Amino acid sequence: MKNQLEERLDKILQGTPPQGSSLDQAMDDLVRDPEFDDCFASQARLGANYRPKATSFRLWAPLANDVSLLIYQDLYSNRQSQYPMQRQERGVFSLDLPGDWHNTAYLYKVSFPNGKTNFTRDPYALGATQNSQRSVVVDLSRTNPTNWDQDRAPALKNLSQAVIYEASVRDLTSADNSGVNPKWRGKFLGLSQKDTKTPQGQSTGLDYLKDLGISHVQLLPMADFKTVIEGIEDSDNYNWGYDPADYNVPEGSYATDSADPICRIREMKTMVQSLHQAGIRVIMDVVYNHVYDYINHPLELTVPNYYFRRDPDGTISNGTGVGNDTASERRMMREYIVRSVCYWAKEYHIDGFRFDLMGIHDVKTMNQVRQALDAIDPSILILGEGWNLGTYLPDEDKACLVNAYKTPRIAYFDDHFRDSVKGSDQGEGMDTGYASGKFSVERTLLASFLGGERLNKLAINVKSPLQLVKYVAAHDNWTLWDKLAISHSFESQAKRQKRQLLANSLVLLSQGIPFLHAGQEFFRTKQGVRNSYRHGDRINQIDWSLRDKHQNAVDYLRDLIAFRQAHPVFHLFDFESIDQAVEVLKADFQIIALLYHEEDANYLLVFNGQTNTIRFTLPEGDWQVLAENYHFLSADEEKFLLSNEHPLVVEELSLSILKQQGTEKS
Fold first, then answer.
1. How far apart are the C-alpha atoms of 556 and 629, rounded to whole Å?
2. CA angle centred on 443, ends 441 and 446, rounded to 5°
3. Is residue 430 in a domain?
4. 319 and 216 assigned to the same domain
5. How far apart are CA 444 and CA 287, in angstroms?
6. Within a domain: 76
7. Phi, psi (5° rounding) for residue 263?
């Protein structure tokens, strides 16, 4: 016996809306009914599911009268065959089409009782033609590079050892001085290429990432997006990619042949495989919070007014600021996100997901994503932007930083840390932080640097240090170098470089998950461009000559990463352990001194944010200087100090790291 909603739908499909209501209004009222999901949400395996002798096509379109499958004679021909699909339970339309349909283009024709007919790609498509014109059936077993079945994520003892390096596939590999094969520049294969060199013979690209010692590379969006015209190789035909088109298809402009639907899949897998072989895990930047054009997106064209969040008056919600917010609280949108993330993890061996504008999503969805990924591999990392955005969702349900305790194994970018180190990016860039000379910010910085109860005054409620991503720069806003050039234009480049090295040191020695923006280690500039999302290669590409010019800074960052990884006291699991292991010796007058206790050694960090050399009285005992003035001492440079004989001299805007062997905390 049909329930009330099913009876309402039957009348709508027959073209008889309730008295006084149009078909458009009746369809909208039905899809927004609180009971709609209970009645129509489906667990069916949607999309084009390939088998050698037949492909199963499944589309969820509960408001549709009819759905037909359009099969194209070839990828770019207009000649097509049309096959009617059968309506099944909960609004799923189904067709099993005999034959081998690998690499075949298709669309759906979806007709509604209000007289509208939409021609749409498959929202669950795994392949696409150039520029997202049609969906493509894919036999995934034919897309794998050699030995793909043997590919494994590099070993990672625990997430506390994660060090993230954010980059773009294109930015890392597009410059003439990258040493990358010209045919592979800006492509997945460019980041797969080994033995690339700068003009002076230093490593670039894949080898450079390996040399740095990072654990994860976080790559800007690699799923298909709308704002680069595929097939046109032009340095100004550029975009970061936060404009989703097909959520389960790699971006075609990163492939050597965007017109071949299989090429992009195989080459993305090849890149992941190469990074894994280099000991680097891969984090994928995912943008499930909005789409480029919701009116013409397959999600809207198949189930109008369902997948996108609306205010009570029916206005489309716009917390993202780009014209639409996805409605993750709706069961099929939640299921869509969970399935999509799991698909990337299983099929492409992705090791982590960075959720763009994660605060648009609800806590329940994010916890289901975490649970589903745990079933695949608990070491898969989830992190996201935890801003409380103005979307139509109760504040207590948003996956934002103030609710972090509700998502205990998901990490959030720590904006408090960022701002206390370098200053806010709001306004004209003149705000400063500890590394850029601000006074009386030491205690605020330490709250984020160490965490624990200190976070209470920042209104941050997290379960562990691993829920906080420590960073000072990312792809958006100014590079750190450009920010310092604005706030400290009166200073010499040498002094600004010391400020940047101080900021980098704070990132890598903080408790939590350190995060570096590509080129941050060698003073990358975007020529002062604040938001370079479409400014082309000239602004965005990595200038590898800076890597040659600032080799000492690169060496320091590499050694600092190795130092952090070698000593667990700098990447602890819980706040209780941090409180037991770390003493704050001084935190005022732009000086921060911290004493760390390990089982067989003590470590002393002294940060000097002053523009003067300081002398610091050492704790009792003998101390070995491990690093000073952004240089780790070699065996030939060994230096020891006695606390009762020598004060520690710390140069302006620098850091000293010392070790005391065999002294336990009293």
1. 10
2. 110
3. no
4. yes
5. 32
6. no
7. -55, -50
- CA 437 – CA 445 distance, rounded (Å): 13
**Residue 603 belongs to domain with CATH number:** 2.60.40.1180
- Give CA–CA dist 289/578, Å, rounded: 35
Whole-number Cα distances in Å, 284 to 219, 272, 354: 6, 11, 6
How confident is residue 663, by pLDDT bands cut at 50, 70 and 90? low
Q: Say if 375 falls within a structural domain.
A: yes
**Residues 641 and 544 reside in one and the same domain:** no
pLDDT computed for residue 454 by the predictor: 76
pTM (two decimals): 0.97
Position 103: which residue type? N
pLDDT of residue 666: 44
Q: Are 170 and 260 in a shared domain?
A: yes
**How many Å apart are CA 305 and CA 293, to the nearest integer?**
14
Q: What angle do CA 297, 269, 251 make, to 5 degrees?
A: 30
Model confidence at 5: pLDDT above 50: yes
Q: Domain range spanning residue 610? A: 581-661
Q: Tell me, yes or no, whether 236 and 310 share the same domain.
A: yes
**Which residue in 612, 578, 617, 627 sits closest to 598, CA to CA?**
578
**Average pLDDT of span 244-264:** 99
In a domain, 97, yes or no: no
CA distances from 586 to 438, 443, 593, 618 (A): 17, 10, 5, 11
pLDDT at 2: 81
Q: Is residue 665's pLDDT more than 80?
A: no
Are 374 and 313 in a shared domain? yes
For residues 270 and 158, membership in a common domain is answered with yes
Task: Kindly report the average pLDDT of the chain as a whole number.
Answer: 97
User: Residue 381 — φ and ψ, nearest 5°?
Assistant: -90, 140
Q: What is the pLDDT of residues 82-133, one digit of tens each?
A: 999 999 999 999 999 999 999 999 999 999 999 999 999 999 999 999 999 9
Residues 279 and 389 grouped into a single domain: yes
Q: Which residues are catalytic?
A: 356, 385
Checking DSSP bridges between strand 135-136 and strand 127-128, what pairing results, if any? Answer: antiparallel
For 43-70, how does the pLDDT look when each residue is reduced to its tens digit (9 = 90+)? Answer: 999 999 999 999 999 999 999 999 999 9
The two tokens of residue 118 are: 């939409």
Contact assessment for residue 173 and residue 191, using Cβ atoms and an 8 Å cutoff: yes
